[in-house]
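User: two proteins, same treatment. go.

Assistant:
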Amino acid sequence: MNLLLLSNSTQYGRGYLEHALDTVTAFLPANARLAFVPYALADHAAYTARVRAALEPSGITVRGVHENADPVAELAASDAVFVGGGNSFRLLDALYRTGLREAVRDAARKGLPYMGASAGTNMAAPTLRTSNDMPIVQPPSFDALGLVPFQINPHYLDPDPASTHKGETREERLTEFLEENDVPVLGLREGSWLRVHDGGATVQGARPARLFTRGARPQELAAGTDVSRLLATEPRFDAPER
């Protein structure tokens, strides 16, 4: 598979995809027809226009899958797919309704370049269980695309020792996940991404990632770290600690 999984599409102080534009344009085939999946936000037309404005100056033709009466046919006519960010539950529900969950999964497994950002990166994991999002809709299942066998937490946010907020930190929530599931979670800080290609996986971008595994302290992974071992994960969901 050929995957580019971004933590975020917008970096503070920069335009849409600007922080990763060189990586994105190098990832996508030259003069590609890109199928954009806008279902994580309510306004599909405005979302697609935003992606067009960011990518078409680089020679990428952007087509929203909603612009075709048959979204699966639009995907089949494309050179790559980009699943955008927003609410992960709304996105997954729409993928089920349109038939794109199976179509995108199968196409990516056969080598169609898959790019995700935020919610679109959540889709590449086996389930939505490590999403930061509120379940504003109820999809038929939490089962996502399963393009990688481990979980990802985009927008990973480090605990603030000076904060007076008494809610759970991201680290605490992921620790709770590991108490019930024996599956690694890769926390991608904003500005970082995961590249999967030729059977390998590498942390890339401007910031290190953070890896959570059951029974171990979180591990810092600098940009450039090879994490191909995670591709051999055998996930165990609903496996509480004893």
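Protein 2:
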Amino acid sequence: MRTRFHEELEQLTGMLEQMCLRDETAIATATRALLETDIEQAEHAIDLCAHVEAMGQDAEDAAVMLLALQAPVASELRRVVTALQLSANLARMGGLCAHIAGLVRRRHPHPVMPDPLRETVSRMGAAAVSMAASAAQVLATGDAEAAAALEGRDDVMDQLHRDLLNHILGPEYTGGTTTAVDLALLGRYYERFADHTVEVGRRTLFTTTGSTEPE
């Protein structure tokens, strides 16, 4: 019976890793749509995000079934509860990708951002993709050191977000109010996406060590 439980727990962990990999693909696709004003890529990103949402529901259902039928305790209980929390984080990452792609769809055929901000947004997208890839690796390996390192990498995204806001609020900005609102939302979406990868690291660290702080 416990062998079956551990097999199902490993399957649940695999589901979470696949969700994170799908988030990685979605944020890369949404960023490409944003930079290229590509409506087909935007629609593809939105479809990917819908799949992530469905996967999240499956993962949540699997975690609840393990709690209800297997009555895990101690470290096993910690793993199942953390998986339940992670499924929510990963689903929200997909939702944020859908918001980015939705901006592209709403403004098409016009670009969401002015040319002076293309480099900043491109770097935000690259940082998000890299953090999602690292989070997926953490989920696959349970590496406590790599999990703890995700928090430090979030500093890059925070600085890029500040750069974006400073440009919007600066005297050289001429993009208009509607574009400013879109850009402020865009920056927030990327920032929150990165924050959720940090939560993946923290929750994985908790599963591995029993603490959210590195040793």
